[in-house]
Specification:
With about 325 residues, the chain is of the alpha+beta class. The protein has 13 helices and seven strands. The strands form three sheets. Strands 3-4-5 form a three-stranded antiparallel sheet, with helices on one face. A two-stranded antiparallel ribbon has the order 1-2. Helix 6 packs across helix 7. It is elongated and about 80 Å long. It starts with a helix and ends with a helix. About 20% of the residues are buried. About 15% of the residues have low confidence.
Length: about 325
């Protein structure tokens, strides 16, 4: 308590008062050793070195902060969800400490604007903010200890910015969910690339579209293939869940595909009381019919010739005995 009072008294006389105030608004306490936090906000792209020629950046603090975050969030999740299994707890912790979440937190807290980096590294494709967030937690741990880090996460993060219950039950990996759904229902799935390009800052961009049974579905764009496919899968799942006609269309296309894949059965089933036999249909059935007709015609002709002979003989005998 006394240290906090002393820090507040010294604040107006500090050279970097604005940085102190900014950090206080973020972490909830005034820094004792400002150098920790300066290093946490120093990206490696600046290529700064110390007196011994070794690089100075936030990577080591990022490593430390990552470990501290895992422990703290694991502790919080464990206490918040009594009775939940290990898999649920692990997934919930992963959702909170994943790079996308930390990036958003860094932006919301104002950490990103404090980062010192080269202009090239300030792209949407990097995890600059999320890495700095972890490094800042590492700096806070070195400066104020584990308890201060726990308080920061509970009060500043989970108390203000993240709803832990909402995060826990939120579906994050939409691509996996879509794959599971298509496998369950035996639906053909394709992630079709639409375009590859670059944004104004030169960062690569990707666009993908989900295709189910040949039907174009949701589209997604992002700064990585994974990000764009996740977005496309998310949109597609929303289509399927909210639009029953759309889902019916997919299943009808599936039935049509299956029907086309099955070979035609050109057999006739002949049944009797004792057995069942399969007789193949022949293309030359008409020829057999014609052959049978010709035979019938030949028999008729032969009969006509025999009768004619008998008539001639009978007529000759009658004339002989006249």
């Amino acid at each position: 308590m006394l240290n906090k009072i002393i820090d507040r008294i010294k604040l107006p006389f500090r050279k970097e008062k604005e940085l102190y105030l900014s950090l206080y608004n973020i972490i909830g306490v005034l820094p004792h050793n400002l150098s920790f936090y300066k290093t946490a906000l120093l990206h490696k792209s600046v290529a700064r070195r110390n007196d011994k020629g070794k690089p100075v950046n936030n990577e080591r603090l990022e490593f430390l902060g990552d470990a501290i975050l895992d422990a703290i969030v694991g502790d919080i999740v464990y206490e918040h969800f009594p009775g939940k299994r290990e898999g649920f707890l692990t997934n919930t912790r992963s959702k909170i400490v994943q790079r996308e979440t930390l990036n958003k937190l860094a932006n919301d807290l104002g950490i990103t604007r404090l980062i010192l980096s080269s202009g090239h590294s300030q792209s949407h494709n990097s995890y600059l903010g999320g890495n700095a967030f972890e490094a800042l937690v590492g700096a806070l741990y070195l400066d104020h200890g584990y308890t201060a880090c726990m308080k920061f996460m509970k009060k500043q993060i989970l108390g203000e910015l993240i709803n832990i219950d909402k995060v826990a039950y939120k579906e994050v990996n939409f691509k996996s969910k879509l794959i599971e759904w298509t496998q369950k229902h035996k639906i053909c799935l394709e992630f079709k690339p639409l375009s590859f390009g670059k944004d104004k800052e030169g960062s690569p961009t990707f666009s993908f579209q989900v295709v189910l049974e040949g039907i174009a579905c949701g589209e997604g764009s992002g700064y990585s293939k994974k990000e764009s496919q996740q977005e496309a899968a998310k949109v597609t799942l929303q289509y399927i869940r909210k639009n029953t006609k759309f889902a019916d269309k997919i299943f009808k296309a599936k039935q049509k595909r299956i029907a086309l894949e099955q070979p035609e059965d050109l057999s006739v089933i002949e049944t009797t009381e004792d057995n069942v036999s399969v007789l193949p249909l022949k293309d030359d059935a008409d020829d057999e019919s014609n052959t049978f007709t010709n035979i019938e015609r030949e028999d008729c002709f032969s009969g006509m010739v025999a009768n004619e002979k008998e008539n001639i003989i009978a007529k000759a005998e009658a004339e002989a005995f006249e």
